[in-house]
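Category: protein sequence paired with discrete backbone structure
Discipline: computational structural biology
Format: plain text, a pair of labelled lines
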Amino acid sequence: MRDDGIKLLKNKFFDKSKWMQFPRDVVIGHGVTGQLPAICEDLGLGTSVLIISGKRTWKVAGEEIHALLEADCTVSRFTAEDISLDTLKKAEEAAGNADFIIGVGGGRVIDTAKIVSFNQDLQFISVPTAASHDGIASARASIQTDSGSVSVAAQPPIAIVADTAVIATAPHRLLASGCADIISNYTAILDWDLAFRLRGELVSEYARALSNMTAEILVKNADLIKPHSEESAWIVTKALVSSGVAMSIAGSSRPASGGEHKFSHALDQLAPGKGLHGEKCGIGSIITMYLHGGDWEGIRTSLKKIGAPTTPGEIGISEDTAVEALLMAKNIRPERFTILDMGLTPESAKDLVRMLSRE
């Protein structure tokens, strides 16, 4: 047999490198703040640390951390009142002589620590005092600008130390907001699938599966999410860390941010200061799940069980503003294609917002 017509496959060099960064140590449980000195020693982070906290979170956990570390480290403190460009500049100056950073607080403080550590090329440890959104573990940070909230690439934490005894004392509204943020992963991955089918956007199956599983865990355990319960704090914090890891695998916030997040960011501009991030994402997720033809009523039921809002009115936002946010969502991060980019009419947007109040 002649082989003239046979084309041999040539060896092709496979070059698809990707840099994923994950936390090395994740410690969640009762009283784990006391393990910080051992964690810092284990990671070999250095002997000079800047603690970034808020005024309230300094008293909640910052003072204890200062006392724990001062025997072996030079400890300095920076108070983050907001996450403005001015605050970030001052925090970077405060970090000038630090070997590493510890962020102690909620989303604003942790995001400040992320951005400062990224810009200063320092490692940072995330010590959440509330489980209000998945930023405690992700490599993304949100910063407020004149045009609203902007998501930027930042430094993922090298370690997460989540003391459930501390987190359980935070207002339940914060925990419920964190739950809503995770539950909205359901619709984020549906939007990702839609972008794959219509725009050819690459989807990470690993990140997609992890994000979906994380949302399922919270929906199945919605009855267990109670105010000031350490078990609740443990369940939600684990889910938030898992969601952050999914984003690290994907190399973007795609597994946890779709049309519901664009709706939330539109509300940031139209009604600044109204509602928590996760609360707005939860409401947006009910709407986008309806548009996807999924179990939007199941999402609404789960949110109600955990004590999260399901209508704009519950967070002080009018129906007209919610309608405007739905129509405006396509202009938020236009490169991120979602179900809200498909061409909602003003009338259909009104119907969707009215639907939220129907029993």
Observations:
- Confidence is low (pLDDT under 50) at residues 1-14.
- The beta strands are 25-29, 48-53, 74-79, 100-105, 123-128, 140-145, 148-153, 159-163.
- The CA atoms of residues 33 and 64 lie 8 Å apart.
- The radius of gyration is 22 Å.
